[in-house]
Known about the structure:
The chain has strands spanning 2-10, 13-14, 17-18, 22-30, 43-46, 53-60, 64-71, 77-86, 89-96, 105-113, 116-124. The chain is an all-beta fold. Strands 8-7-10-11 form a 4-stranded antiparallel sheet, with no helix packed on it. Strands 5-6-9 form a 3-stranded antiparallel sheet, with no helix packed on it. The radius of gyration is 22 Å and the shape is elongated.
Amino acid sequence: MSNRSGQVSVKARNSCGYSSSRSKTLSISCREIVELPITNDQVAVYPNPSSSSVNLKYRMSEQGKVLINVLDLTGRVLFQITTVNEKEGDYTLELPFRENGLAPGIYMLHLIRNEQQDVIRVALSY
């Protein structure tokens, strides 16, 4: 971990006009970014938030069934995708939120792969 310093200048504005500029030196601790290895249970949803559809990326550690439910915040299933006999490997699936008539809001994506379950919050925007 290392420390980095820099100057920050701020000028405020309200209905009376602008304030004079103020400067401050800040010191920030930097951490090294370490890329984590992909694990069997890793799941990614992108872009999130989205304005139309999201991509669901997941890994199958062994052949099996995949069930994807999109739920509202009350737990009601809005649409569902089921695949059978997916082989071991990485998959990316586009989920068309707008095409399924979903309005902007927060939804839950429930992914079931064999015995594994993941729930991811997804935001649909304008």
